[in-house]
């Protein structure tokens, strides 16, 4: 397919929005819980792309027609390297020749990123776009984060365990710290601060945001908890912003009770709360290397988005 790769400019905004909406529509056909906002309000996606026009970006054009685009999102320090991310709405391509288009776009942008000392590359992509997943895999990307959705249907629970809506965060802050200490271990290897004041501040921020804490106790000892609230602007789940979506923001169960039904009871309480609050769906994000958490969420949620990551030798 003959085409020209050119810098992404304002003239590409509208056709880029149209390309993205088509890919979103394709994913929504496989993930019906996805809201319709991106299709109903294309100006929302246009503004998001417009805000990134100053960043490196490329467009594949054939006789004035936009075939594909990729636009750099945020740049930040992470995992000891300078990182760059391409959000899920910052790229799309037509179906014909899609693999080659992505290969060419990434080749061009990756060189520019490395020239600017960005050696950690992240891309958000729809879960059911298997061709793009394979293309990224061949380019050296591996899974990092999954975003999942489910409706508010009742889960079949075969046992009942006491769960309390806890208002006193001091009663389970030690369990929250234990949760934080879980992440640096294999195979997640994610460093987080275990400072008690930081943990308290984290829980207090949830409380101030209106999030709800469900805690499972045994002999007055907290053994598992789940935090649920409204999916907020600026956090995870960009495509769910202002779409009446609830979010599981944190959850943890001690190792000795995993697989015994406590997590399901907590999730059911979160779903019931979401129903009572008038939400339409529930969202969760998790690291794909979080085996205990990821395997649990996989049973009750459907993936709609993955973030994949590639390391480039920082000596280059």
Plain-language structure description:
With 316 residues, the chain is α+β, with helices and mostly antiparallel strands. It folds into 2 domains: 4-139, Aminopeptidase; 163-286 and 294-302, Gcn5-related N-acetyltransferase (GNAT) (Aminopeptidase, 3-Layer(aba) Sandwich), CATH 3.40.630. The chain is built from 9 helices and 14 strands. The chain has helices spanning 13-30, 37-40, 42-50, 98-115, 130-138, 173-182, 196-208, 262-276, 291-300, and strands at residues 4-7, 57-62, 65-71, 75-78, 81-86, 91-93, 120-126, 142-150, 163-166, 212-218, 221-230, 245-253, 281-287, 302-311. The strands form 2 sheets. It has a 10-stranded mixed β-sheet, sandwiched between helices. A hairpin with a 2-residue loop joins strand 2 and strand 3 (65-71). Helix 1 packs across helix 3, helix 4 (98-115) crosses helix 5 and helix 6 (173-182) packs across helix 7 (196-208). It is globular. The two termini are 32 Å apart. 34% of the residues are buried. The mean pLDDT is 95.
Fold-level CATH name of the largest domain: Aminopeptidase
Name the CATH architecture of the largest domain: 3-Layer(aba) Sandwich
| Number of strand elements | 14
Total DSSP helices: 9
Level-1 CATH class name of the largest domain: Alpha Beta
Which outline best applies? globular
Number of domains: 2
What structural category arises from helix and sheet content? alpha+beta
Low-confidence stretches: none
